[in-house]
Amino acid sequence: MPAKHKTLEMIMGELEALQFDDKAIEDYKNSFEHIITTESPETIHKLIDENPDSHFVLVPLLAGSLFMLHRFQDIYNLISPLDLSGADRHLDYFNGKLIKYYYQALKYLGKPVDPLYSLLVRNREYGNSYSVSVLVNCILDFQINNHIYQEIKEHILDNHERSRYCFYNGIINLVKGNYKTALEFFDESDILNREPELDSVLKKYIIVTKLLLSNYSIFYPYSKELIPYFSLIGAIKRAEVDVFYKLLEEHKDEYFKMNLYFIIKRLIQNLIQEGLRKITVCYSRILVKDINEILGINVDYLIHKTIKEGTIKGYVADGVFYSMSLEKSDPIFGNSIKKAVETRNVMMKMMKYPEIVPLCYEKIFDGDAKKDL
Length: 373
Description:
Arc Repressor Mutant, subunit A, elongated
């Protein structure tokens, strides 16, 4: 059940408690989005003037209200004079909120983000976990937008910030080709995420990452915004090179918008490998040049790579690909199965109990008579 939102007036009644009372801070967090979307900057600014002692607690609300109106210059003018080093740990959450809006202002105004690195050092020194998590995500966002793919190791506790942190690290590993690690980060981000906007983006990244891993277990409900990504699944599974390049051109704007265009181009290798797998099932031997004609692309390099990875069984000799059955291509594997079956049969025999002979009076009597003799 969603938490009940408090009004600005109700929050104002808890100003003193906000610096020390966890319950009051939780109410502030739950009501934050509601307040910045319903209250005008002028109203909040007036309250700040009337309550100078609670300046640092109320300024995040004003910055949020200005953000909703895209008034980034006003946000910059409001926050840049403030000390965001986090010397007072009781104000960690409010400090983190201000840093987040400060970064958005720097980003949209095209100003250098160098101050963020200094703030990260200072907030780490003061042990401000929330401010540090916000700063790490801001720096990761900046670096990724500027094509710098470098991870920042940080233990982040806040679920919202952890979700963002995992998303950014998923992108970094995806670009580097660490697809399994990327999928793990995306999955964790998906579990923790509560943002509808990020939810849509995560689905797109997860679909592409799974396809790069040749994993077609994708269970998202069909939706219009995911059509460019669902279409890729069919093209790859059917090994349709022409259809794949047509999709790349048709949905180019979408792929570029999500920074996935060049990542998706890597899927051509998965598509060719899927095509090779199907061809080797149908043909015991076939000229490599004929495979090139069937798939419409030169596969000389990929066919050797695919054999080496074990996706297909066979070998190439004098320009001819020879498909091999599992038994012929891997006698060690066949012998292992045979040995396992033999071991099982021996164990089954050992597990059988000896036959239990039914007791009867005559046999017992005869046994006692023999003892007497």
